[in-house]
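Aim 2, interim progress: modelling of the octanoyl-coenzyme A-bound target.
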Amino acid sequence: MADYETLLVEQRGRVTLITLNRPQALNALNSQVLADLIAALEAFDADETQGCAVLTGNDKAFAAGADIKEMSDQGFATMYGSNFFGGYERVTATRKPVIAAVAGYALGGGCELAMMCDFILAADNAKFGQPEIKLAVTPGMGGSQRLPRAVGKAKAMEMCLTGRMMGAEEAERSGLVARIVPLAELVEDAVKTATTIAEMAPLAVKANKEMVNAAFETTLTMGVQFERRLFHGIFGSDDQSEGMAAFVEKRPGKWTGR
Ligand code: CO8
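Predicted structure of the complex, ligand included:
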């Protein structure tokens, strides 16, 4: 498996565990992290032995934001001209699910990266926030759009305008995270959850991910129609026949990914 300067990547069965590894900077996201992360996710997506990924940091920080030191001297021409950090949208193009396992700080770009994943599992010490306003800037990796969709306008607006952090309990109550897990169990729980997903029929996993994500991009009528078309389409797969036969015959299904 490839080595990355800023990530640790290991495979645990059908699960790819990607760990952000710049602890000296609280995993601040710089251009190297972006390049490494995209390469790792592309390799994961292309690897047929892998069904689900977990993206995590360390106990103190998932990621404390984009790297302020890398950005501090930039001007409009270089930021706009290079579409600075525009590549992060590639994370959302990953077709297999990616779970964010967040402990400690998920701030600014860190919170935005977690929200680009398919769902977030939070350790009890997780803290989410969009503190860019304190630096006299704004979110730049989707936070102003994904946070309101996750927690509603009132909380998102308050967080963006004041920079205050939200703890794990508030984040769960508000719909930002799927579940809270004790810190010591976070990664194991996330890998176990990812394993459950990775053992499902691969085409059904991709289709479920695609249709839930479509809910944030379209009207209800178009979204329901999109769902029905994919639902009908999946009846063309071998795994659908196998899955339903296995249920009727009271045995586990065996998937081929076809
Ligand atoms: N960038 C660079 N370095 C960082 C960052 C960061 N975001 N966060 C922490 N570090 C570094 C610190 O500078 C420090 O380094 P050093 O030891 O060399 O001084 C080290 O990590 C440890 O940090 P602290 O000493 O500050 O640790 P504390 O425990 O005292 O505080 C905090 C932890 C509260 C998380 C604090 O570090 C902090 O406030 N960090 C900045 C949080 C922040 O403002 N994040 C938003 C950044 S802007 C952003 O993410 C925009 C995203 C969109 C970009 C897309 C552009 C298109």
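Residues 121 and 201 are 23 Å apart (CA to CA). The chain is about 45% helix and 15% strand.
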